[in-house]
Write a structure and sequence with these properties.
binds heme C, Cytochrome Bc1 Complex, Chain D, domain 2, rod-shaped
Length: 170
Amino acid sequence: MRQVKASGAQVRTPSLPTVLVVSLIAAFVLLGLQKAGYWGQPERVEPPPPTPAALAFRRAQAEAEAAQAAAARLAEVQQPAETIEVLPEGEGRDATFALCTACHSTAIIRRSRFSRERWDELLDWMTEVQGMAPLEGAAREEVLDYLARSFPPETAPGGGRRATNPFLND
Ligand code: HEC
């Protein structure tokens, strides 16, 4: 089929097979370019799911990290165990240290200043309220003597009890 243009030049209309082949080639080229990532999103490849062994490894790793963190936290707050030297020397120190540190540190004892009677009451309280094994006889006397001697009521230089009110001068 021939057409005659106004200018007189001849233009061939491409045949149907030619159009089909050219469109197919164009389509393949375009698809190839897209696959190569020239435009559009390249296809996402999902990683394969982890194997049970990999999961177990990750879990073990997380547990080890948690244990390490816990140990580090503990090391930060832990104090070295007390030794008997923290108590002032004197007869009955061994017995007192052994008996009293079963439940608490000696800090609570060392900060206290009581009369012998008050220490006596405190031992009863420790037994009745806190569950300390009853302390009787010579053993009780030994501990009481030690406590009363080592941690007596604080006295001011004049001999009277030290004022606990910091705003009072004595
Ligand atoms: C059976 C456990 C136990 C034993 C053993 C024990 N205590 Fe205690 N003690 C406690 C408890 C519990 C407290 C209360 C701590 C608190 O209130 O936080 C306490 C508190 C104290 C306090 C503080 C009381 C106050 O009101 O300020 C002193 C001082 C004390 N104990 C001295 C001793 C002495 C001295 C001994 C050894 C003769 C002793 N404890 C043995 C459990 C015990």
